[in-house]
Amino acid sequence: MKQWKPAASALLAFSLLLAGCSSEQDAVSKPPATQNKQEKPSQPANAAAGSETSKEIPDAVKKPLKIAAIVQLSIGTFSSQYAQGLKEQVNEFGGDVQIYNADNDLSKMASYVENAVSQKVDGILLDHGRADALAPSVKKAVEAGIPVVAFDSDLNIPGVTVIDQDDYSLAWNSLRTLAQDLNGKGEIVYVWVGGFTPMERRNVIYEAFKKRYPNIKEVARFGNASQNTALDTQSQMEALLQKYPNKGDIDAVFAPWDEFAKGAARAIKQAGRDEIKVYGIDLSDEDLQLIQEKNSPWTATAATDPADVAKLQVRFLYQKVAGEETPQIYSVQPHLVQKSALPEQKVSMNDIGKYVEGWGKSDAAISAWMETLSKEQKK
């Protein structure tokens, strides 16, 4: 995987697609020039992450680290696989991680950050969250000397590394496939909810997509985030199918979250509306099972490996604790997974690399001493 190049190519494509869209992407995807002199696009991923060549374990990470992982909302198998990735990587390094779920309450999330600072943890991991709610608490952590690495957040605080899935590319890969399959014309449903940084970014591309393909019309939009998002989406999609009962009323559904895609796909399949196809974002083992079901409407999804993203986030944190330089932002390269590319036999996330070119474990944020540290824990 090459840092920056996927995001850069996506930005170029989007700038040609819509100038206004391009400017917003640049604002989010490019670090301030005054803060990131060490982050050169031409550098390999490990160099940009400040990797050291010595295999000697830095003193700062020899002790078991106490880490607080604070998530905005934990729903579905994507979240569970992300959490599992965090635990596996921290355990491999001999540390301890406590995961705190804010249940979509940003004030509670900020409170968890404050508590972590008070407890003098060795590091803080953030999953989602918004800068307007978290910035004051995160700044306290930085001032206290506690390293912070965030995932899918709009934080822009010097010293805080923010990683993302390149949400612009995720949305464009899925929407472009939808447009090609419809031959640029059709009626679609958009399942979306605001209030989450990655969803807001994906919506930027959706709005550009509508201008790029004016003959693809949005006939309905709905969506909400809850502890039963997939089930709620299924119920809402069932009602929508009754409102649009005829073939040709709806050609496709764009669901930029796998919980939305699961609910929509189940409703469509149960209604026998096999002419309607679902295009999503995100992927998990549960999603793969649904995609591979006979007559499943879920046709394609753009995704990264949630467990791999979590492990990358942990490695950046350990590099920070060790005193190594890390980038302020880092985008993980997403991939398009199409039902047509998968075999008839059931596959898991561990198998995707056999069928999707480029899918695999990230080699970023790996320092030579990490192998030694892992071996020490196995003794």
Description:
With 379 residues, the chain is of the alpha/beta class. It folds into two domains: 185 residues, Response regulator (Rossmann fold), CATH 3.40.50; 137 residues, Rossmann fold, CATH 3.40.50. The chain has 13 helices and twelve strands. It has a six-stranded parallel sheet with strand order 2-1-3-4-5-11, with helices on both faces. Strands 7-6-8-9-10-12 form a six-stranded mixed sheet, sandwiched between helices. Helix 4 links the parallel strand 1 and strand 2. The N terminus is likely disordered. It is found in: Cell envelope. It comes from Fictibacillus iocasae. Belongs to the bacterial solute-binding protein 2 family.
In short:
The protein is an alpha/beta fold and 379 residues long.
Q: List the helices and strands in order.
A: HHHEHEHEHEEHEHEHEHEHEHEEH
Q: Which secondary-structure class do the elements indicate?
A: alpha/beta
- Termini separation comes to 31 Å
- CATH architecture descriptor of the largest domain: 3-Layer(aba) Sandwich
CATH class of the largest domain: Alpha Beta
CATH superfamily of the largest domain: Response regulator
Number of strands: 12
Query: How many individual helices?
Result: 13
Provide the gyration radius in Å: 21 Å
Q: Provide the β-strand percentage band.
A: 15-25%
Q: What's the helical proportion of residues?
A: 40-55%
Question: Regions with pLDDT < 50 over 5+ consecutive residues?
Answer: 1-51
Major sheet attributes: 6 strands, parallel
Number of domains: 2
**Sequence of strands across the biggest β-sheet:** 2-1-3-4-5-11
| Mean pLDDT figure | 87
CATH topology of the largest domain: Rossmann fold
Give the overall form: globular
